Amino acid sequence: MARRPIEEPHAQLVFQIGDMLVRHRGRESSRSAAFTKLPASTTSRNTRRLVRTSIDYFLVGNKTLMLAGFIDGRCLPKLAEMILTGVFAMSTQARSASSSVPALTGYAHALLRIVASYLLLTHASAKLFHVPHIAMFDGLPLFSLLGAAGIIELVGGMLVLVGFLTRAAAFVLSGELAFAYFIGHAPKGHVFLPLLNQGEPAVLLSFIFLFIAAAGPGAWSIDARR
Q1: How far apart are CA 39 and CA 44, in angstroms?
Q2: Where are the beta strands (DSSP E) in the chain?
Q3: Read out DSSP for 183-205?
Q4: Cα–Cα distance, 13 to 125 (Å, whole number)
Q5: What is the pLDDT of residues 58-115, one digit of tens each?
């Protein structure tokens, strides 16, 4: 049966354990020269042998005892093999658990982009098309501050929704919403308490779009496919 190569990161983990064992006893540590760089063809059997040598070096060469009773190196190789097995298991589980994190982050990022864009588009639709109907927008002139805001929100919201030119569109929307807050809500007072001047949606959406401008569109976007 062919021997399965051991990945070099595993060896590095064993190094770290050796360093910690020595530092725990308050002594300086140095690594075994044979263990400095493992070739890609290193086998499981060879790795166990090198690890045993390294652990012996750390524990015996530095006169550091791991457990009472382990006074000579003959007791240590089995213990080193147990440590190596545990490290392999833990590192494999850690990589398996963390491998799905980037994918989940990308999907959550995309959901944030889509939901924020949809909410903004409802504001644009209310201003420009009166759907949903809001009485204060009745008879709204297209060439006015609110009319211009509706156009920016409609175009920018659609671009961010589909993830096309996302960073630029999100940056413009963030600025437009910040401007809307200071023009339409801050004059009512309580600049730092948007709850009291009904400016919370503008503040929250402004920072969400600022985040999207900095972080990009995430998954499910045209930009990600280009």
Answers
A1: 12
A2: none
A3: HHTGGGS-TT-GGGTT-HHHHHH
A4: 57
A5: 444 444 434 333 434 444 455 555 665 665 555 555 555 555 566 788 899 999 999 9
What integer pLDDT is reported at residue 222 of this predicted model?
95
The CA angle 152-154-156, to the nearest 5 degrees, is: 60
3-state secondary structure of 65: coil
Written as six digits, the tokens of 22 are 């020595």
**Per-residue pLDDT tens over the stretch 134-162:** 988 988 898 899 999 999 999 999 999 99
Q: How far is CA 172 from the centre of its chain?
A: 25
Q: Residue written as tokens 């990589």?
A: 95
Amino acid, single-letter form, for residue 30: S
Smallest CA-to-CA distance from 213 within 103, 105, 145, 112 is with 112
